[in-house]
Amino acid sequence: MFLLADTPPPGSVASDRKGSPWTLGWFLVFGALLWLAALPIDLSAQCWLALALIVVLMVLRYLPKRWTSRALFLFIAGFVSLRYFCWRTMETLDFSTFLGGSAGVLLYLAEFYGICLFLLGIFVNIRPLNRRPAVLPQDTALWPSVDVFVPTYNESTELIEVTLAAAIQIDYPKGLFTVHLLDDGGTDQKCHDKDPVKAAAALQRREDLMNLCARMGVQYGTRARNEHAKSGNLNEAYKRTSAELILILDTDHVPTRDILKETTGWFLRDPKLFLVQTPHFFINSDPVERNLGVFGKMPGESEMFYTVIQRGLDFWNAAFFCGSAAVLRRSCIDIVGGFEADSITEDAEIALMLHAKGFRSAYLAKPLVAGLSPETLGGLVLQRIRWAQGMAQILLLKNPLLLPGLKPWQRLCYFNSSFFWFFGLARPIFFVAPLMYLVSGISVYRAGLAEVLVYALPHLLAGFVVTNYQFGRVRWTLISELYELILSVFTLPALLKVFLNPKAPDFKVTPKGEMLDREFVSPLSWPFFVLTGMTLLGLGMGFWKLAVDPMERDMMVVNLGWALFNLVLLIAALGVVFERQQRRSFPRVEKPLPASFGFGEMTLAAQLVDISVGGAGVELVRGSAVPGAGVEGLLAITGTNGKAYAFHAIVESVFRSPEGALRLGMGFRHESASEAAEKVSLIYGDSEFWLAVRNQRTRHTGVRSGLGSLIHVSLSRCRELSVYVARSIRVRFFRGNQPNTSNNHATLQP
User: Fold this and answer.
1) Is 562 inside any structural domain?
2) Coil, helix or strand at residue 543
3) What is the pLDDT of residue 511?
4) 685 close to 643: Cβ distance less than 8 angstroms
5) Over the stretch 50-61, which tens digit does the pLDDT of each residue have?
6) Is residue 15 predicted with pLDDT exceeding 80?
7) What is the rounded CA–CA span in Å between residue 3 and residue 16?
8) Which of 616, 626, 617 has the alpha carbon at shortest distance from 671?
9) Of 439, 389, 416, whose CA–CA distance to 316 is shortest?
10) First-last CA distance in the chain
11) What does the pLDDT read at residue 4?
């Protein structure tokens, strides 16, 4: 991927170097490309043109990614897609029947949506900015003061304690930052709930968290009523605090020690800066990664946005606030009246309003928090429904294309960020369209096989090549399509609700730290079984019609290929809806460090394998004595900075690794407050370690390799699903027992 070597000069950002000539230039280039793309040529000439352009793309793909070669590559790819779209508009719409014409228009609009996003993506990511931290002055008296906000609603005390323990250890002058826990689970409203059980639970939670904060030196705060969800919670704290800057951390976002030193310098460098956003870096698998068994092998789903797209937005001064892992300037928040907004994605909306007022944002791509992804498919869907509804609200209520004050490039960037979430309207159409022809013979796409090969196929190839060129390090082929397929089934009705009433959606908290005690088929799985059955039916009828009526061969082959492509994604989706066990509330972090285990008069040399706040895995040096389960002792670990750590631990299991090495599974015991804080510092405090982990995950993967890996893991997981279903049927119908299923999944209430 292209990295812009130079950071912006003091007091400015890269986008300020662009003015009206840039805007005019972009429109002229796009107009010229559109005019050329619309020129009619015969089929043979189009074939040679498409072939030549694809060959040029393949050559440019392997050249050093300098600005000129990158721009040329993206312009050629954009031209290939524009060429397809012009042909698609002028030659393929069929209005001979009402049903076919109506369905054809829907498909055309879905494709128009996809091509718009493709071209906007090229624009947004034309030159990603690689911003470095701004160095703070030597005199700490010049450093800005910071309030650290940790909003919480229903998260566990254990999860909150870890984040607070890391927050109070941030490496920043003690008199210049204060940590605040903002408890929305212990409000007066909740403590006086009509249900006495709920009221008692809220009172107990408030007392527990007040005691925790008093013990840790954290300011506890709550409010009277749970109004405006997270934004209202932040707004209440914002009104009663006064530091120059505000660092916001979700409850599951554990900060590194250097988070403030890495981010606050930019506010001294640029007085117009309102935001420094950093990545949401996740240390556990989301349900797609876990259920397909690709966590650590495949880049995380969020890496594409936080490693590339936000850097692209930063070049255009359009990087936006993502709700956490961000520092904001209080005086700028004053201008927009606080954190409350009209949408349930108040973070992006606040950024939009401040950009419109001429303020600037910055994006620092270094991981400075370690967060938790939703553990279940229900939790993931709940989170993405909120994002989709919130971004749709922004588009409807604060349309960035019309909002006064934004620069033209900022309008396009914000429109792209909002418009993306309409995939729930387009993706189902791509799955139903080929089935209409295969099952009922209704044509929604009037074209012969030769035309599809010289227009549509180059467009698809250009899309795959461009995606791999821009995001090959952070996204496998078809993974975006897989996530969109899974989520579109649920975001579609949620988006329709927003269109009917843009102010209707409510903020719903994403569950974190869930545990699954056994494998089970997700209750959200049925749409994918239905779609798979429909696709298999369509394929069967299509192959039968191809055999008995070869006159329809061209369109039949096109639609069969289309349906087979859809089937690949559906097989992967079936692998995802089969939920794996997840028994850890805190994920283990692989951290190979020198260690030793002392018990009695013995000390065994060892190597730390992985660690969490609850325990650790260590590998003994060959020839060591083997302590039995139940042995207690002191686990000593040497950190990456050379610091020595020691934790009381007990041996819970003794086993051999796949390579035959002897390992101990250990649980932490009898720890003091200082020992707990040291443990959090060791696990979460080093940002360079998280950077190394991210770099290890984000290795470039080619189109064929990524596609092959996805198909392999999907088929493997579907075989396991088949065995599970067969076993469940056998138990239910032949043994008279119901198979156990876990209740530990998020309840979907879109």
Assistant:
1) no
2) helix
3) 67
4) no
5) 999 999 999 998
6) no
7) 19
8) 616
9) 416
10) 37
11) 38
The strand ranges marked E within 600-681 are 602-611, 615-620, 632-638, 644-656, 662-668
Given the structure tokens 């009246």, which residue do they identify?
337
18 φ/ψ angles, rounded to the nearest 5 degrees: -100, 140
Q: What are the pLDDT digits (tens) for 56-89?
A: 999 998 888 788 888 899 999 999 999 999 999 9
Query: For residues 347 and 503, what is the distance between their CA atoms, to the nearest angstrom?
Result: 16
SS3 category, 201 = helix
Residue 634 scores a pLDDT above 60: yes
CATH number of the domain within which 346 lies? 3.90.550.10
Alpha carbons within 13 A on the beta-carbon side of 679: 26
pLDDT > 70: what percent of the chain?
Answer: 92
CATH of the domain at 663: 2.40.10.220
C-beta of residue 559 within 8 angstroms of C-beta of residue 457: no
740: number of Cβ within 10 Å: 11
Kind and range of the H or E run holding 246: strand 245-248
Q: Answer yes or no: is pLDDT of 28 > 70.
A: yes
Length of the chain: 750
pLDDT, tens only, 126-151: 999 999 999 999 999 999 999 999 99
- Please name the residues in contact with 372: beta carbons below 8 A apart, sequence gap of 6 or more: 252, 282, 283, 284, 512, 513, 587
| Listed residue (645, 596, 601, 650) closest to 619, CA to CA | 596
Cβ pair 213, 220 in contact under 8 A: yes
Return the active site residues: 184, 347
Contact (CB, 8 A) for 418 and 98: no
Give the C-alpha separation, 246 to 148, whole Å.
Answer: 6
Indicate left, alpha or beta for 428 from its phi (over 0: left) and psi (-120 to 50: alpha): alpha
Q: Which of 316, 343, 373 is a domain's end point?
A: 373
Sequence letter at residue 307: T
Q: DSSP letters of 87-123?
A: HHHHH----SSHHHHHHHHHHHHHHHHHHHHHHHHHH
Residue 394: the pLDDT is 94
Q: Which of 307, 338, 373 corresponds to the end of one domain?
A: 373
* pLDDT exceeds cutoff 70 at 16: no
Per-residue tokens: 563: 């349906």
Render 411-480 in DSSP notation, one character per residue.
HHHHHHHHHGGGHHHHHHHHHHHHHHHHHH---SS---HHHIIIIIHHHHHHHHHHHHHHHTTT--TTHH
Collapsing DSSP states into helix, strand and coil, what is residue 609?
strand
Any long-range contacts for 462-467 (C-beta under 8 Å, 24+ apart)? 462/53, 462/54, 462/57, 462/77, 462/80, 462/81, 463/77, 463/81, 463/118, 464/703, 465/54, 465/57, 465/58, 465/61, 465/77, 465/703, 466/57, 466/73, 466/74, 466/77, 466/118, 466/122
Sign, CA torsion 156/162/164/165: positive
Using CA of residue 21, residue 25, residue 28, residue 31, what is the dihedral sign? negative
Q: Per residue in 611-623, is it b (16+ CB within 10 Å) or e — as a string?
A: bbbebbbbbbeee
Please check whether residue 335 lies inside any domain of the structure.
yes
Confidence at residue 61, expressed as pLDDT on a 0 to 100 scale: 86
Return the minimum-mean-pLDDT range out of 210-219, 286-295, 327-336.
286-295
Does residue 650 lie within any of the structural domains?
Answer: yes
Nearest Cα to 580, choosing from 513, 522, 519?
Answer: 519
Residue 327 domain-assigned (yes or no): yes
Q: Which domain holds residue 202?
A: 140-373
Q: Are 427 and 488 in contact (CB under 8 A)?
A: yes
Which pTM does this prediction carry?
Answer: 0.90
> What is the rounded CA–CA span in Å between residue 703 and residue 415?
28
329: three-class secondary structure by DSSP: strand
Angle in degrees, CA 380, 386, 391, rounded to 5: 125
Number of domains in the chain: 2
